[in-house]
């Protein structure tokens, strides 16, 4: 029980069903020609929203928060953060 007397239960894995990418300002754009398939973007993504699909790494924009970790970790500069137009 919390200090205010309210019981709280948090379900594990709730971010799998809660789309969290709606508030981002920047979106990652991948240059697949520069990509060497090292998968560092997928490994370091704090939201685990980058996946390899048909040989290319692609962010799931429903969950990407635009933090730019993937861009900073890419050794080839294959990921650029651009202002998202909404």
**Number of helical segments with 4 or more residues:** 2
Overall mean pLDDT score?
86
**Order of strands in the sheet with most strands:** 1-4
**Derived structural class:** alpha+beta
Tell me the fraction of residues in β-strands, as a range.
15-25%
The profile of the biggest β sheet is: 2 strands, antiparallel
| Morphology call | globular
Helix content: 10-25%
Q: Count of DSSP E strands?
A: 4
Distance between the termini: 41 Å
Written overview of the protein:
The structure is a single chain. The chain has 86 residues and is α+β, with helices and mostly antiparallel strands. Helix content is 12%, strand content 21%. The protein contains two helices and four strands. A hairpin with a 2-residue loop joins β2 and β3. The longest helix is centred in the middle third of the chain and has 5 residues, at 40-44. It is globular. The mean pLDDT is 86.
Which helices and strands, and how do they pair?
Elements: E1 26-30, H1 40-44, E2 50-53, E3 56-59, H2 69-73, E4 79-83
Antiparallel strand pairs: 1-4, 2-3
Structure summarized in a few sentences:
This protein has 86 residues and is an alpha+beta fold. Helices cover 12% and strands 21% of the residues. The strands form two sheets. The chain has a two-stranded antiparallel ribbon with strand order 1-4. A two-stranded antiparallel ribbon has the order 2-3.
Give me some keywords for this one.
single chain, 86 residues, alpha+beta, two-stranded antiparallel sheet
